[in-house]
Amino acid sequence: MYNPFSLEGKTILVTGASSGIGQGVAIACSKMGASIVLNGRNQERLQNTLSQLEGEGHLIIASDLAEQCGIDNLVATCPAINGVVHCAGIPKICPVKRLKRDLFLEIINTNELAPILLTAGLLKNGKLLKKSSIVFIASTAGIFTAGSVGDADYSATKGALSGFAMTAANELGPQGIRVNTICPAVVETPILKQSLSLMTEEELRSKLDRYPLKCFGKPEDVAYGVIYLLSEASSWVTGINLAIDGGCHL
Known about the structure:
alpha/beta; 7 strands
């Protein structure tokens, strides 16, 4: 039976695949038949993700995308792919008045420059095949809603991805390459769980009150949106910001 969401026969590069959303995306895409190229900085953690993938033909390429040499290494060793999901990202909590160049450049390098320059490198070296799909994991923060206090730098980098993606979608559309962003709200990752354990019941309830569905997201919630944007089901979709946020933008 025809399944428009199938990723059979596709090779997908997933950055930030060692944990959290990136790991969830890699696992879910493998279940839909894709061969996965796993990227992250930690070889051991990538091996852990690899052990959870279904199917065959998967590959690990460990490199630090905050460095240009890491981007160049990934581009050079990556096989031809049908899609890339940019999941690598870091938070840096800092009030606006305490922002400094070095701290801001660190988050810009990882959250903004790395995915943009990696995309450029993949295109320049012909690694993205015809009708490829590029998916950036952005955030509701800076696009649909205001970020939390201390998240101005993070919100700025995620907002920049949205602007880049829309223009790239316009430029690459004639080549049949689609470019979209997914904008999650709070997702249950190991870092979040550690943070939530320090909250009182009242503080947790206050956070959940922002969500009409009264729960945070899970990595697989984001992964299912990614599968849609990588698959033939979204073949006429490009240049969008897809909010997966439990309704918090309302």
